[in-house]
């Protein structure tokens, strides 16, 4: 996979409505030679999910709102302009304060985008939500996300 010039206009990019918010792909791994992905995320103010580990590193850069990230026993409060980088395999969870937060999410490789697309597919398959939790746990495991 080779890197190539890629432009995404404001408001453009594939939007993936997952459980915790809408992730708009601004630069996919296919645009960066597989090095990283960039998402613009509108995070919903929901209770935090259980801590999890992902096999990709990530950086959150907050644009609007406030969010709290807990990682390896430390709590970080992000306000606009703050950035937090988490190495791969660090146990973490996060939540947005009401009314939500808007951020840029950078992730190494292509796995975050694959996870988001798989979550969207699972949500589409289970609109009644009865089997959603086991399905989402299966999607997480298939994408090497480990809940701790």
Task: Give a description of the structure.
- 18% of the residues lie in helices and 38% in strands.
- It is built from 2 helices and 11 strands, in the order E-E-E-E-E-E-E-E-E-E-H-H-E.
- The model has no long low-confidence stretch (mean pLDDT 93).
- The radius of gyration is 15 Å and the shape is globular.
- With 148 residues, it is of the alpha+beta class.
- Helix 1 runs antiparallel to helix 2.
- It has one domain: Jelly Rolls (Sandwich), CATH 2.60.120.10.
Q: What's the topology here?
A:
Blueprint (H helix, E strand, L loop, with lengths): L14 E3 L3 E7 L8 E8 L8 E2 L4 E7 L2 E5 L2 E5 L4 E4 L5 E5 L4 E8 L2 H15 L6 H11 L3 E2 L1
Antiparallel strand pairs: 1-2, 2-3, 3-10, 4-11, 5-8, 5-10, 6-7, 6-9
Helix pairs in contact: 1-2
InterPro entries: Cupin_2, RmlC-like_jellyroll, RmlC_Cupin_sf
Organism: Nocardiopsis aegyptia
GO molecular function, one term: dioxygenase activity
Sum this structure up briefly.
By secondary structure, this protein is α+β, with helices and mostly antiparallel strands. It has helices at 111-125, 132-142, and strands at residues 15-17, 21-27, 36-43, 52-53, 58-64, 67-71, 74-78, 83-86, 92-96, 101-108, 146-147.
Which structural traits does this protein have?
about 150 residues; alpha+beta; Jelly Rolls; three-stranded antiparallel β-sheet; dioxygenase activity; RmlC-like_jellyroll; Quercetin dioxygenase-like cupin family protein
């Amino acid at each position: 996979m080779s890197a190539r010039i890629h432009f995404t206009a404001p408001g453009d990019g594939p939007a993936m409505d997952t459980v915790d918010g809408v992730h708009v792909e601004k630069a996919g791994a296919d645009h960066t030679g597989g090095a990283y992905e960039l998402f613009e995320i509108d995070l919903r103010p929901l209770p935090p999910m259980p801590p999890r580990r992902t096999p990709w590193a990530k950086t959150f850069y907050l644009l609007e709102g406030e969010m709290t990230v807990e990682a390896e026993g430390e709590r970080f409060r992000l306000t606009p302009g703050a950035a937090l980088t988490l190495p791969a395999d660090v146990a973490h969870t996060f939540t947005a304060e009401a009314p939500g937060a808007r951020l840029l999410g950078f992730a190494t490789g292509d796995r975050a985008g694959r996870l988001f697309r798989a979550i969207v597919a699972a949500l589409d398959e289970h609109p009644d939500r009865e089997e959603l939790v086991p399905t989402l746990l299966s999607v997480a495991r298939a994408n090497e996300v480990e809940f701790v």
